[in-house]
Amino acid sequence: MFVDVAKIHLKAGKGGDGRVSFRREKYVPDGGPNGGDGGRGGNIVFEVDPGMRTLMDFRYKLSYHADDGDDGGKKRSSGKSAKDLVLKVPPGTIVKDEKTGKIIVDLSDDIKKAIIAKAGKGGRGNLHFKSSVRQAPTFAEQGFYGEERDVILELKMLADVGLVGYPNVGKSTMLSSITKAKPKIANYHFTTLFPNLGVVEVIKGKSFVLADIPGLIDGAHEGVGLGHDFLRHVERTKLIIHVVDVSGIEGRDPEEDFESINNELFKYSEKLSDRTQIIAANKTDLVYDDGKYKDFIVKMEEKGYEVFPISAVSGKGIKELMLRVTELLETIEDVEIYSDDDMFVYEEDDKFNEIDYKVIDGVYVVDGIPIERLVYSTDFEDIDSVRRFQSMLTKKGVIDTLREMGIEEGDTVRIFDFEFEFYN
């Protein structure tokens, strides 16, 4: 089975918590803080594996979670950072942010490895909070959470040239006759179930990758049949060879077939209308209406297309076609399949900064990740730690917001599992 689209959930590792610790040495009666920092969590990294051809590995496992960093230790010992979780993908994989639809990275020729979900950094140990007025801080910092996101993986094959055309026009036969690819070939009107790749070299040292894009049908641009599954592979090609059956043995009109397929291509992406395209007039060995066949060639040439009469079965005309393709590829620039507007812009997730407020049965409830980190970095049995907690609530604007909500002295405030009476 060929799988070229997958949706998965990613969660990078959380940073380890900072440690609260003090020196307890025999000859150091007033030992200071020596709590170490937490280790960084694991990133989630995507890396190209040249040996992979599909996204099958992501069909059954849909969620990936990198390890968390270790907590800090005593004697200034930092916690161990977690290893990155590396996920292998085939060349040509585009990673999109599911929420925005924007492209995070295109893992093609230029980029082989990228961090897709960034790990949380470790929290600072109490060593960092010592000051002239706070000699023995009894609090440390909680580790930061890693990024969490849903992504869509799309495989767009890295081929220089794409073979397009209706099913059963001879594309697979043509691919197998000029490359070492072994596509399944039969005389049927059902399309091939997955694209095939092959390498062509008719001029020594000037090879290119040729892809048999499975047979398209009317409505493919709207997803009819396997429409979008295959059309996305045409986008990367620099040149299109449009294979047309000119034999007439099945009663098909080659000009109608040609226009119909192009209509599907252009409706799927306007960019494809500017793609260099040449015509391979196949099955010339079976032509029974010579006049209609020649008329087709004249019409196509009048429209500006180069037409190469070929027979994929006998090999007639194939070398001449491939020589011309090799020449054209040297003059065609690399294809840009998306613009800067399509690219994902990294911004810190709002949930890491947002503080939520609500009133439930007369109780003012405050929560959110910034408050969670503050709560779990506080020792509520230590007056110094509690004072820092109150100071941080003021700095984060929590006190002012509660006043704006109408809180009065003596009202109850719930912050996670802790409840307090509000006093001005």
From TrEMBL:
GTP binds at residues 165-172, 190-194, 212-215, 282-285, 311-313. GO terms for cellular component: cytoplasm. Residues 159-330 form the OBG-type G domain. Its cofactor is Mg(2+). GO terms for biological process: ribosome biogenesis. Its EC number is 3.6.5.-. Mg(2+) binds at S172, T192. Residues 1-158 form the Obg domain. Its main location: cytoplasm. It holds the Pfam family MMR_HSR1. It is found in: Cytoplasm. Belongs to the TRAFAC class OBG-HflX-like GTPase superfamily. OBG GTPase family. PANTHER family: DEVELOPMENTALLY REGULATED GTP-BINDING PROTEIN-RELATED, MITOCHONDRIAL RIBOSOME-ASSOCIATED GTPASE 2. This is GTPase Obg. It comes from Helicovermis profundi. The lineage of its organism: Bacteria, Bacillati, Bacillota, Clostridia, Helicovermis. The gene is obgE.
